[in-house]
Design a protein that fits this description.
By secondary structure, the protein is an alpha+beta fold. It has 2 helices and 16 strands. It has 3 domains: 91 residues, Immunoglobulin-like; 87 residues, Sandwich (Immunoglobulin-like); 36 residues. The strands form 5 sheets. Strands 3-2-5-6 form a 4-stranded antiparallel beta sheet, with no helix packed on it. A 4-stranded antiparallel beta sheet has the order 10-9-12-13, with no helix packed on it. The radius of gyration is 35 Å and the shape is rod-shaped. It starts with a helix and ends in a 6-residue tail after the last helix.
């Protein structure tokens, strides 16, 4: 009788609490990813992945789950797999690195440039270029519009991110004076003013000196008044 009960217990489905870890193929965590899981009995749950990159699904019959990675950074992914106690780490394919180089019109790196990434017209990520004028991120495979802005100059680039890519956005920033970013036109205008203003002052001073000289000559040359 005891042996029969033991066999029945062994044959009954075992419900486990199954922890699942989600990463990219390089092992980086997909913080904020939307995850859907379905148990063998049809029960479904939706999770938002936290900083630790792990979710724990309670009472999973036989420890088997259907898993779907719905989206990350509001970009659809749709990756599906089956998770088991022997395969609890889900490596999500199709996540690629994007490197954005922001440069000025002389090819100089622009530190602190605002970088905004759009997918289907919606902003999905915002960041700032580093000391080298570079902004790095990970994104699901999709088409994106990348906008870079610095000192009032703004430009966009289109990227089909189907593999790791690097893109350069060049803004009309020639240089800075007193911390103020200037376009090539503005910079040349200031240089021109720096030349014209001293020249104008010189001409005015010269003309004034000539006027004073002519006036003195007229006074000296004037005949004495009759008494």
């Amino acid at each position: 009788m005891f042996k029969l009960m033991l066999v029945i217990i062994v044959l009954l489905p075992v419900a486990l609490a199954l922890p699942l870890m989600f990463t990219t193929s390089n092992g980086e965590t997909l913080i904020g990813a939307v995850i859907e899981v379905e148990k063998l009995d049809g029960t479904r749950y939706t999770y938002h992945l936290g900083p630790e990159g792990v979710i724990t699904v309670p009472e999973v019959p036989l420890g088997i789950l259907k898993v779907k990675v719905v989206s990350w950074k509001d970009v659809p992914i749709g990756y599906q797999c089956v998770a088991t106690p022997q395969n609890y780490t889900v490596k999500v394919p199709g996540i690629h690195r994007l490197v954005v180089n922001v440069k000025g019109s002389r090819g100089q790196s622009l530190h602190g440039a605002a970088v905004t990434i759009f997918h289907q017209g919606r902003s999905v990520e915002v960041g700032v270029s580093d000391e080298s004028g570079v902004y790095k991120t990970l994104l699901p495979a999709a088409s994106y519009t990348i906008a870079a802005e610095y000192g009032g100059s703004r430009r966009e680039a289109q990227v089909d991110l189907m593999s790791p890519q690097e893109v350069t956005i060049q803004l009309d920033i020639f240089g800075e004076i007193g911390g103020l970013p200037l376009s090539s036109t503005e910079f040349m205008g200031i240089i021109l003013l720096a030349i014209v203003i001293p020249l104008a002052i010189f001409v005015i001073a010269y003309e004034y000196a000539q006027w004073r000289r002519r006036k003195l000559l007229r006074v000296v040359a004037a005949p004495p008044a009759e008494k």
